[in-house]
Design brief:
Helices cover 42% and strands 18% of the residues. It has a single domain, classed as 3-Layer(aba) Sandwich (Glutaredoxin). It has helices at 11-35, 42-45, 77-87, 91-95, 112-121, 133-140, 168-183, and strands spanning 49-50, 56-57, 66-72, 98-105, 128-131, 149-153, 159-164. The protein contains 7 helices and 7 strands, in the order ααβββααβαβαββα. The longest helix is centred in the first third of the chain and has 25 residues, at 11-35.
Amino acid sequence: MKQLKYRQAPSSLLLPTIACLLITFTVITAEAQGKVGKEPKNSVANHQLDTLDGKHFTLAGLRGQVVVLDFFAVWCGHSRMHIPTLTRFGEEDRQRGLQIIGFAVQDSETTPQRIAQFIKELQISYPVGTVQDAVFSSYVQSRDVSVPQTLVYGRDGRLVAHFAGHDSSVDADLTATIRRELAKKQ
């Protein structure tokens, strides 16, 4: 497996960098909380999502299922750590109404070969597509297109959670949210 290398910022930049990350996280969290419990805009709900295997989805067409949209980047270490949270859900969960769709955010480093390698290395068994920043931004309803970001929609089509980044608390909260939503009946 290829090891990722990170550049260390000079110590004089450490405190401003941490402050910037905290402010960004706070803004994302505040924006996300305002959307939870609401249905997506019609333009988002009816936007066709295409996956690499030729499948087509819309949020409106998936109503009745628990839908997880995961936006990631193939070069992002946090995205790489985040994917196992979603790959632990299997066929039994899909039969209970879970639909996970991953989206590699397109940039200069996102090639079909890198996406295929990412899917293979992380053993992703759910559909994966690609998405431009403008579409990504419309789904998360923010200009912040940092990755990973994960949206969870309940069976009624309403957003029940928006996760940004990845750490052990996101892992636990995302897993609990999906399990809770799957337990709900239509």
